[in-house]
Structure formats: C-alpha cells, structure tokens
Amino acid sequence: MAQDAIYHYGGKHEPCKLTGNIMFPAFLFVRMGIIDSFYSLGARINKVKSDTNAVETEEGVISDLMPAMRIDTENEEIEKLATTWKSNWDNYKKDLEIKQEDNEKYWKGEHFSPLEMSAQERPIVDNLIFESLETFLPIATAKNPEPVVSMDDSKEGSFFAGLNKDILVYLADILRLKNRLKTVVRYWSLYLVGISKITWDEREDEMTVQTIRPSRIILNPESTINEDMEYTGDYIGEYKQDTVEDLLAKFGSKTKEITSLVANDKRGSKVQYIEWWTDSMVFWTLKGKVFNKIRNPHFNYDEETKNIAPLNHFKRSKKPYIFLSIFNLGKHPHDETSLIGQNLSSQDLINKRVRQIDRNVDFMNGGWGVSGASGLDKEAAQKMIHAARYGGGLFVPTGKVSDVLSRIDASPLPGDVYQSLADARLEIRNIFGVRGSTPEGTVGEQTVRGKLIIKGQDSSRIGGGITEYLEQYADQIFNWFIQMIYVYYDTQNLQRILGDEKTAQYSQLLRLAETKALKVSVKEGSLIPKDDLTKRNEAIDLWSAGALDPITLFERLDDPNPYETAKKLFLWKTMPQLLFAEDQEAQNAAAMAQQQKLMQEGGVSPPQPQNTPDTVQSGSGDVALNQVPIQ
C-alpha cells in the first residue's frame, strides 16, 4: 500500500514526537487469492438468522463463510464483503426502524395517524413521554464523569498519573463531554442504542468525540454489546457526507471514483459514501467500490528495522466506536426494548382519556330539541333554539314551553375516568424513575421529608439502573483519550494543556508507560445524582460529629472556593487578626487584647486609659465626664 494514502487521511504517521518511534511500519503481506466460489459455499445471502437461541447451541460454522480481512486483501474481495455486510443489515434493520420511528414520533408528540391529523390541525396531546424523558436526562447526566488515573506506588508513577488526569479533565471540559453524554442517552432512549466515535480532527489538531445517529451505522445483526460497552462484531460501516473538494483533500486527487462524479467546477457538491472499520484497518467505498484503505490509524505499530516497542495504551488496535446499550439480552447490537417503548400503550391511554374528557366537556354545553307536534317549521325552530341558547325570551301561544322546547344535557363522566388518567400519567413517570422530580409526582406527600424521600428514590433508581452504565461508557472514552494521546500528541499539544514545565516532565516520564500499565477509570458514583439538600445536611451532621474536615465540608456545601473558605476558618480559629491584616483598627484592637492577656497572666494590672479631653480635674481624683450621672 502506498505511504501517501496514510498521509492524505491523517498526516500523522511519522516518527512520534514524544517517543521517536516510527509509526508507519512495513506491512506483512499475506496473499488472499480466493476464488469466487468460496463466497457461495454455504452462504446465506440476503438472509439473517432469526433463531438466536438455536445458534447459541449450534456446533460448527454458524456464520457465512468469510475470508479474513487484511490490508492486502484484494479490493474486489473487500467489495464483495462490504456488499454482503450492507445487504444483511438492510434486511435486518426493517423491524428495528419501526421501533425507532415510533419512539421518535411519540417523543415529538406525533401520536396520531395522518387521518386524525387532518381532522384537527393540532390534536390534543398530553405528551408524558417527552416530559418524562427530558426530566430523566438532566438527572442521569447531571455531573461530569470524574476520571481516576493510577500507575504504581512510586513517586514518579503517581506524578505521571496526575499529569494524565489533568489532560483528561481538560479534554472533558473543552469537548463538552457532559453534553455529549446527554445526547448519547437521548439517542439510546429513542433509537435503542447510543454510539460515540473517537476521531482526530486535523483542522483543530485535537481529538474529538462524535455522537453518531444510529441510522447512519451498519452493524452485524448477529453481534451484541458487551458489559464493557464494546461492540462484538467484526465490522462497522458508517454513512458519511463530504464535498468533493474535501474528499480530494483527504484522499488525494488520484481517486478516479471521486473525480469522475462531478465536473471540476462542481466540486462543492456533497457526496455520500461509507467508511468501514475493522479492528485492523479502515476502508472507504463509494457506490460499492473501494477507493481507499489504510491500517487502523489510531494505533502505533511495530517497526521492522528497529527493536523499539511502540507505545500504546491498548494491547491491540480497536474500532474507535463506543456503544451504550442497557436493556440488552446479548442477541443483537441494540436494546430489546426502551423506556419509551415500555410506555407507548400508557401514552395511548392518556391520549384516549384526554379526548374523552374533552368531548364530554363539549357535550356538557348541551343541545336543544324542538317537538314536531309544536307546528313550527325548521326555520322557526332554529330561531327558537338560537334565542334560547343566547338567553332570549320564548313565547308559546298555547301549552307549556317544555312541551315545545327542551334542553338535552350530557351525563357527567364517572370519577374512574379521571383516576385512570392520573394512574397512567403516574405509571409513565414511575417507569422513567422521575415521579419525585415533578411537582405532580409529589403532590400526595404532605411533608418536606416525604417529598425528599420520593425524590431520593428517583435518584437511586436512575443512579443504580442507568448511571452505572454511563460511568462505564465514560470509562471507555477516557481510555480512548489516553490511546489518542500516545498516537497523535506532540510537544505543542501537551504545552497547550500542561504548560512548558509540566510538558518537559511528561516527556521524561513517558518511558514509564513502556513497562508499567496506566490504569484509567471513572470514579464510582461520580455520575450518580444526589439531592443537594440531603447532601448538605449529611455534611453538617458529620462536621458536628467531628468526622469531616473543613475542605470537604465546604465542597459538599457547594462553596465556590472550598479551600480558601477552609483556610479562613482555620485562621479564624487560630489567629483571627490575620483575617484583617489590612485593617489598622482591627490590628490595634488585636494588639491591645494580646497585651492585656499577657499582663493578666503575669499578675500585672493593665494600664489605665490616659487623660483625654473627655476627662476633667476635680479635687484629688480624676472624674470622667462619662461617669457623671445625667439627670
């Protein structure tokens, strides 16, 4: 493979500026001469196995016969594989898309058919699904994930781990990681899977985290998502869009498939193509044809001519995707159900009850009936009804008015209808775990403590059920950050984050990572939502019992600068005069108090105040004016 293919894609596979290792190795080519009949042998073209349980207990070859994908595989063979992968997913995703579309429509409030929509411009909708999800999201992603980095017990290892933690905290901030997690959770709720991709942005000279819409992804239907939030399939395809000009800048003008699409003066036109990833390589197809392929660029490979171990955080190259899947039974690369899917029937019931109540209110206005025996024609009857409806007078020559005109009233709805509506609304909130986080959810509790208990139950439900998976998701992101640092960062990248002095120290300590593992994780419970009032009360109780230091106390009280506040408390307890170092009056008072204390300890009376204009001489003693009684 030509080396300029690497250059046009990333431009970073050159001698590493941190370690000096050459990052573009000689490849070990393995000839893949495979005849076409190999693919048809036992192939299941355009078929997806539906009996997952049978596959789990089946022995022998359980998938289509496929060659191993390597960088030197012929393009024609790669194209056949990619076509098969895409066809399998297209056939499988039809049922999945129905669920995704239903979830999205209900979240947007589009609960009705086109016929119902045409009958009323804006059908009445009480959208509890939107309310519950958008209440759930801020609770589940209320906090930034806190990275924990360690190496060994040595002073150098601890310092190097601390520098890496500083970089991770910086990246989490500039990449708005908390907001990206919120988007991932929303996609997971709507589309049954959340997906992030770690990439290197050449323009910004920095890594980034992209949140990928699941509809733009091609997966292996027989794969799944494991507990590490990793996809178990052999390949991932992603639909991407770029202008022809950008594609030429990335991959070079030699690619005939790109230049043949449009004329030279139309290179601002957008083109959609597919980017395919395996653990070892990435390639791109346009209209089914491979127009470029390279080894996985996010990994430092062995260099044949030098016996220097490359620096990687991962032991092997990986696909740069992270998946969020929670309600997964290990059968498919997505959840079996979702919070929204579990509530669709309850939302339908709410809409039905709301329509029933609305219609009944309209009927309660009543109608009017005119007897045919009255002798009135249709026009006269309409005038009579109009007069009665708007409070006019009625004249009946003979007989009773009620014999001619009568009001028709609708019966009121029974109370069970309103109770059914309230139960359905509450059930949706219960399933999402946000009952105590809405005013209506706590209206039945009369005490503040009861309301806090219900809200705390919401936090425990979300924290234990969802947030633990988010912590693992963030764990994967932080580990990918370290890998990208080892592959792409140079001195300028480090200086931008750490400064000159710490960058020099980082480069010197980088050798430790060659022999010692850098362990990166997320602090357990750092994403679990906590009630602020409860947290403050617990902190005050611990402080009162002498079981909490002042810095932690002020942190839990959400003090903007807990260290400085604790420092002032320490000075107040030990040398309060230092708090008023710039206040001369306070300093004089402190000096006088200290002098009096010392003299009292030595048995000497403190000095009496000297005469001032406020004192006068009278006989043998001095009498202060302020001691003269005022009559």
Task: Provide structural commentary.
- The chain has helices at 3-9, 37-40, 52-56, 75-108, 114-119, 128-140, 155-174, 177-191, 244-251, 256-259, 344-364, 378-389, 401-404, 415-432, 448-488, 491-498, 500-509, 532-544, 550-556, 562-574, 584-601; strands spanning 147-150, 194-201, 206-212, 217-218, 236-243, 270-277, 281-286, 289-295, 321-324, 367-370, 405-408, 519-522, 615-618, 621-624.
- By secondary structure, the protein is α+β, with helices and mostly antiparallel strands.
- Strands 4-5-6-7-8 form a 5-stranded antiparallel sheet. A 3-stranded antiparallel sheet has the order 3-2-9.
- Strand 7 (281-286) and strand 8 (289-295) form a beta hairpin.
- Helix 7 (155-174) packs across helix 17.
- The N and C termini lie far apart (111 Å).
- Residues 1-13, 21-50 and 611-626 have low confidence and may be disordered.
The whole-number mean of residue pLDDT values reads 77
Unreliable sequence segments:
1-13, 21-50, 611-626
SS strand fraction: 5-15%
Biggest beta-sheet profile: 5 strands, antiparallel
- Given the helix and strand composition, which structural class is it? alpha+beta
Strand order, sheet with most strands: 4-5-6-7-8
Q: Helical element count?
A: 21
Spatial shape: flat
Please give the alpha-carbon distance between the first and last residues: 111 Å
Radius of gyration: 37 Å
How many β-strands, per DSSP?
14
Helical proportion, percent range: 40-55%
